[in-house]
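Batch manifest, entry 17 of 40.
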Amino acid sequence: MKSGIHPKYQPTTVTCGCGASFQTRSIRPELKVDICSECHPFYTGKLKFVDTAGRIDKFQKKFAAGTYASLAAKPTKKKPVK
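Output type: structure tokens
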């Protein structure tokens, strides 16, 4: 392999949003992740909603019962064709 063309491979600390951290190796000295094996629903067996910037609330408000039904009931004004 050619020398001097590969990035420096170094020990890395991975920190999760839940507070867990572990050591691995990467080209970066530190990584921050949202979900790790200690808090991911697949590994824990518990259902957990991961809400980023209120997306779940925004979705529920957008598709609440009657929101689009009331919009469909309103007559639309069409411009007359000349």
